[in-house]
Amino acid sequence: MKSRHLFLLFLSVLLSTPLFSQASESILNKRNLELSGGWVHSTGNNGLDGFNLGASLWFNRRVSIAFSYDHAGDTSTLGNFGLTSAGLVTINSHLQNWLIGPRVFFPTKKVKRFDLDPFGEFQIGGTYLSQKISQAGVGSSSASDTAYSWMLGGGADYVLSPHWAARANLDLLRTHLSDMGQTRLRFVLGVAYTFRRRK
Fold it and tell me: pTM, whole model, 2 decimals?
């Protein structure tokens, strides 16, 4: 419950800021929308792989508010050969993140068609983790939790055309599952499509 209260407080503060309240029809125009997606890897829980989906609203050429959704999972076994004294043990993990926050691009110079746009980002939101442990001949047990999380990091866009870019992110993701803090690294490789021209 505590994490939900913190997220609702953040959302209400965000919506009441002058930056958001001054967003006119020109800012909320489709031309300022960006959609992205790709592969995501998160450390922790034996390493989790999956997909990332995102959407951003550009306020100007360098600042956007970004929403990110990750869904990653892993199935692994305990022991070098998948066997323990208790028999075969399988761990199935699924992690979901939904985060929102500012993304700021830094000015750079184009060098011989090599057009790179580096950025920094900070996002807050929530994380859901579910795990199922199965043991041969015994059965299975499962647990799950949802908690507040935040992310700090950055990356770069390699501009492919006026609308398309290849994107790489490396972030520190801090989750608070089971009333404890966990630090994870999050890596994303994907593409982004911006409705307006980038340059």
Answer: 0.78
